[in-house]
């Protein structure tokens, strides 16, 4: 059995164990209508899929996450490279990043609604906001972690500053950039649910809110399972990207 097959079987066993623990807890320990076992939740998920409701909610949330994440990463990577490469830029911009990154995106929900309303713009803004500072810090740290001997070797071979940056510093920073983006993606899931709970007409957060209002407990757990599955898949995608595109720059991979 190769490594990938063993990993896939390990994941399947892990999820099977999760659902077994869930079933035991719901049927033997808690025994409450507010904590349904897996089978009714699965039946409700199938019904929502057949009606097209679950796909719509997942697509709405995922679209906002990807849009905001792309914008935040597109801003964060160049800023992080500049902060890590140039002292003047670091002195000027570090106070900005250290100030705003401690203001959580959840606290900015009211501001985003005031500025952009309850449409798509407010949710995309929040995802970009929660993404950009994580990516900036990871990228800047990656630039600072570039081995000095590699830089000196390139300079001894006649490389210019631009060549050192493009051929040495930037490739060595890629693992840090992707790791920062991976962490930022997790923050995006937290933020989108909070944003959709407050101001949205669709999405998994809205689905959770409506299910709470009407005490549709199975719908709550369907939304939670959907969020967990999407998060798991996105994290695996980033791990594969890190290994495929950045593994050769990181001896630990």
SS-based class: mainly alpha
Domain tally: 2
C-alpha-based Rg, rounded: 22 Å
CATH class group of the largest domain: Mainly Alpha
CATH topology-level name of the largest domain:
MetI-like fold
Strand-and-helix sequence, N→C? Answer: HHHHHHHHHH
Given as residue ranges, the uncertain stretches (5+ residues, pLDDT < 50) are: none
Main features:
single chain, 253 residues, mainly alpha, MetI-like fold, 82% helix, 0% strand, globular, membrane, MetI-like_sf, transmembrane, cell membrane
Report on this structure.
The protein is an all-alpha fold and 253 residues long. It folds into two domains: 35 residues; 214 residues, MetI-like (MetI-like fold, Orthogonal Bundle), CATH 1.10.3720.10. The chain is built from ten helices and no strands. Helix 3 runs antiparallel to helix 8. The protein starts with a helix and ends in a 7-residue tail after the last helix. The mean pLDDT is 84.
Please give a quick description of this structure.
It contains 10 helices and no strands.
Summarize the helices and strands and which ones pair or pack:
Layout: H1 3-30, H2 38-50, H3 53-85, H4 87-100, H5 109-116, H6 120-144, H7 148-156, H8 161-198, H9 204-213, H10 217-246
Membrane topology: Multi-pass membrane protein
Family: Belongs to the binding-protein-dependent transport system permease family.
Transmembrane segments: 12-34, 65-87, 99-118, 124-147, 159-178, 213-233
């Amino acid at each position: 059995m190769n490594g990938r097959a063993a990993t896939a079987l390990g994941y399947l066993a892990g999820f099977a164990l999760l659902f077994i623990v869930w079933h035991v807890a719901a049927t033997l320990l808690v025994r409450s209508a507010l904590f349904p076992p897996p089978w009714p939740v699965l039946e409700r998920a199938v019904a929502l899929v057949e009606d097209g409701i679950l796909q719509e909610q997942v697509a709405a949330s995922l679209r906002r996450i990807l849009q905001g994440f792309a914008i935040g990463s597109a801003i964060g990577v160049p800023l992080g490279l500049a902060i890590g490469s140039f002292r003047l830029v670091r002195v000027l911009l570090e106070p900005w990043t250290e100030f705003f990154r401690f203001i959580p995106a959840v606290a900015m929900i009211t501001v985003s609604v005031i500025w952009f309303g309850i449409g798509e713009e407010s949710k995309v803004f929040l995802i970009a906001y929660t993404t950009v500072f994580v990516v900036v810090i990871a990228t800047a740290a990656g630039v600072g972690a570039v081995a000095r001997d590699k830089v000196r070797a390139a300079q001894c071979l006649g490389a210019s500053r631009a060549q050192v940056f493009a051929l040495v510093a930037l490739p060595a920073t890629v693992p840090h950039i992707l790791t920062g983006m991976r962490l930022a993606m997790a923050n995006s899931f937290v933020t989108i649910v909070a944003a959709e709970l407050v101001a949205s007409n669709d999405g998994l957060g809205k689905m959770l809110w409506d299910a709470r209002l009407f005490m549709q407990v199975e719908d709550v757990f369907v939304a939670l399972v959907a969020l967990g599955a999407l998060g798991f898949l996105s994290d695996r995608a980033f791990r594969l990207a890190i290994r495929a595109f950045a593994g050769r720059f990181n001896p630990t991979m």
